[in-house]
Amino acid sequence: MSIMEYNGGSVVAMVGKGCVAIASDKRLGQQFMTVSTNFQKIFPASEKTYIGLPGLATDVLTLSERFRFNINMYKMEEERDIEPKTVAHMISSTLYQRRFGPYFVEPVVAGLSKDNTPFICAMDLIGCINFAKDFVVSGTASQNLYGMCESLWEPDLEPEDLFETISQALLNAQDRDALSGWGAVVHIITPDKVITRSLKSRQD
């Protein structure tokens, strides 16, 4: 088993009409043994930007704190909120610094820029960024998520339709993956608010 699959977990982000969504499952495992059913994988970077971190749980916790520190320092020095694209490049350079002994996470960034343009991207464990205009996936259920997102995603989805689409994609993909599951958390980021919802799913 790959070290990237040791704790399991999946994250997906999608673009809608003036909004973005990011969702993850809740499972933390030790290979096929479930350890926790409410493990946080998505972390706020600013009011309109979220970071998803699927991968090795110890590195998820380490990096979430490191990114929080870097983002707070940026806010103090620049006296403004950090942009999603800047978050992506900050994460990329942090991962690339450790390329010879990498952090075992494949981050996803989703957010709205200051003019409310949707932004999503994913990257590998040494920080190579994959920008997208529709959706990005990461984690152990990625293969299943690609298929579901290709089938369900449409351009210019309204926030409620985007929620339904990303929820169905994630729930159906994790049902076919033994290392993801136990429900999901979905964040819909719109220009005026962030809607967070928890979903129940098969608990086995």
TrEMBL record:
Pfam families: Proteasome. It is found in: Cytoplasm; Nucleus. It comes from the Eukaryota. Keywords: Cytoplasm, Nucleus, Proteasome. The keyword Translocase does not apply. Its main location: cytoplasm. InterPro entries: Ntn_hydrolases_N, Proteasome_beta_3, Proteasome_bsu_CS, Proteasome_sua/b, Proteasome_suB-type. One of its GO terms (biological process) is proteasome-mediated ubiquitin-dependent protein catabolic process. GO terms for cellular component: cytoplasm; nucleus; proteasome core complex, beta-subunit complex. Transmembrane segments: none annotated. Component of the proteasome complex. Belongs to the peptidase T1B family. PANTHER family: METALLOPROTEASE TLDD (PTHR32194), PROTEASOME SUBUNIT BETA TYPE-3 (PTHR32194:SF10). Component of the proteasome, a multicatalytic proteinase complex which is characterized by its ability to cleave peptides with Arg, Phe, Tyr, Leu, and Glu adjacent to the leaving group at neutral or slightly basic pH. The proteasome has an ATP-dependent proteolytic activity. This is Proteasome subunit beta.
